[in-house]
Amino acid sequence: MILAGLTLEELENLMSELGATKFRAKQIHNWIYSKSVSSIDEMTNLSKDFREQLKSIASVTDTQIKIKQVSKDGTIKYLIEYPDGECVETVLMRFDNRANLTACVSSQVGCAVNCSFCATGKGGFRRNLTYKEIIEQVLTIQRDTGLKVTNIVFMGQGEPLLNLENVLKALELFNNDFQIGARRITISTSGIIPGINRLADSDLQSTLAISLHAPTHDLRKQIMPIENKYPLNDLKNALLNYINKTGRRITIEYILIHGFNDMPQAAKELVYFLKDLKCNINLIPYNSVIENDYKKPSVNDTMKFKYLLEHSGKKVTVRLERGADIDAACGQLRGRA
Ligand code: SF4
What we know:
Layout: H1 8-18, H2 22-33, H3 48-55, E1 64-70, E2 76-81, E3 87-94, E4 101-104, E5 108-110, H4 119-122, E6 125-128, H5 131-145, E7 151-154, H6 164-176, E8 185-189, H7 193-200, E9 207-211, H8 217-223, H9 226-229, H10 232-246, E10 250-256, H11 264-274, E11 279-285, H12 299-310, E12 315-318
Parallel strand pairs: 4-7, 7-8, 8-9, 9-10, 10-11, 11-12
Antiparallel strand pairs: 1-2, 2-3, 3-4, 5-6
This protein binds iron/sulfur cluster.
């Protein structure tokens, strides 16, 4: 049995089966989620006999770090291997001027959405991650660094809203067991409308981010095949419904690709598309992935685009590039060595 991923209640049930007190469950819970140990032997406030008893039926984790790369800017990328040999990438980002430690987690092995600018989509879909495999990514970071993750973004490999049950269960654990507030968690989607509708009906306090990347149907379908299934007009209605029901501001993610969607005309079309949506906009200058010809925008074009959007009264940020030298930046994850 694997202890990581068990809630306090599940640990209490386990302790009762072993004839131990509820207090033991609290201690073990603390070792797993706050102190992030990787073995039962490290749980030094349990008696040696009890540790041996526990070890005969359980271990803390069955997940390993296959590769770890550290960027010049402090970003760390892990290739994590699950017992069936499947791997995903998880990234820890630190921003110098903030105390936050943000984990960018994967929700699936591979991805079926196949956005043309994304390294993950190239390898196709392999399988969903279980909620335990999702939370293991954060535990792996904590065990390796000895630091506590403060923020989580579901922006790694996979489309979270196509694995919603496991993502929602992982969110519950992040809230209750890791003590990471829902407002510090962002779920990013390519625009899976049934999933957005489901989130609209839940009382989740997390931020919803939409990978929009183009302001019109014709442009978007060139880079995101999902546009054929869930076109922008329908997506907009789903977003209006989400904002209306939850009262929450959404985030619009927009990858700027030189000569494709970074021109002033595209900025104006984007302003038009977003005009009734309560949202912030995050511009992401494209990071080169070897398999395609897309180019990074110039700083000048990026700033011009930002200015045009700001002029419409929206809050616009340009995402700081993290970990580009180790292919850990947005769209560069591929889940292989
Ligand atoms: S950008 Fe996201 S949704 Fe699109 S292929 Fe990559 S992982 Fe999948």
